[in-house]
Amino acid sequence: MGLWLRPDTQDPGSIKGAELVLLLSQAEPLIVAVEEWLQSPWDPCPAADHSISVTACEAVVRDPALAPPGTRLALPLDFVLAPPPHTLQPPRLSWPCQVAEVVLALVDPEALDQLEPGGLLWLPASFGRHWPVSLRDPHGKLPPCQALFDMAGQQLVLGQDSDNSTAQYPSDIPQLHVVLTRTLQVPLNHWLGWNTKAPTYQWPMPQPWGAELRLDGQVKARGSLLQLGQGCGLWVERLDTPCAA
């Protein structure tokens, strides 16, 4: 965990003596908030003496009441699984967006034997007012994030679970499943649901909806979503690997 006190310099190691003391004093409210989050003392001095290496997550201070704007807080992603205190949440700190794959549905393995170009693979989860889907971190560092796919509104909605029907897909999916070809950039605070009272987060999802059928990381078929009536299916445009057992 590191603190970049001088975003305007490429050599943090040059910050020493009185300047370092001054910068640390200016960042005191931020340090106190981090200690509250960690529930333990935190000494950021070593991180101020060398450049911060590339980490999984880096937040940028926006509120001058915490530290000079532009001050960066670097930490591994597993730290942020526990919600930070309100003082470290947006808009006071700017947190990065994370790449997300949209997992639409799990599919019966027997469907592989019946696939052919031009065919339609029905997705029963799509039938209903809301389509429960799951956001997956392709790198496996974050837990799945539940969401609803609003086909009529052509948008993805996070933070709305009125009927408790959101999909519960694991991060590492060994089963045959359908994902959208297009990935999303989801703000970390919405992904992890830090503020349960925050308004829903909506991401536009205009057509066409390209999609893939995958198994063990391999693409078995490519196509697009085809909406028929109240439901939806994967219209298979081509097979990428032989699907017969």
Highlighted features:
245 residues, mainly beta, 11-stranded antiparallel β-sheet, 4-stranded antiparallel β-sheet, 4 helices, 15 strands, 33% strand, elongated
Describe this structure as you would to a colleague.
- The chain is mainly beta.
- Helix content is 12%, strand content 33%.
- Strand 14 and strand 15 (231-239) form a beta hairpin.
- The chain is elongated, with a radius of gyration of 22 Å.
Main pleated-sheet profile: 11 strands, antiparallel
Return the structural class: mainly beta
Relative helix content: 10-25%
Report the strand count.
15
User: How does the overall form come out from the CA principal axes?
Assistant: elongated
Question: How are the elements arranged and paired?
Answer:
Elements: E1 2-4, H1 17-26, H2 28-38, H3 45-48, E2 57-61, E3 72-75, E4 93-94, E5 97-106, E6 120-122, E7 131-136, E8 145-150, E9 155-158, E10 177-180, E11 184-187, H4 188-191, E12 201-204, E13 210-215, E14 218-228, E15 231-239
Antiparallel strand pairs: 1-3, 2-3, 2-4, 5-7, 5-10, 5-11, 6-15, 7-8, 8-9, 9-12, 10-13, 13-14, 14-15
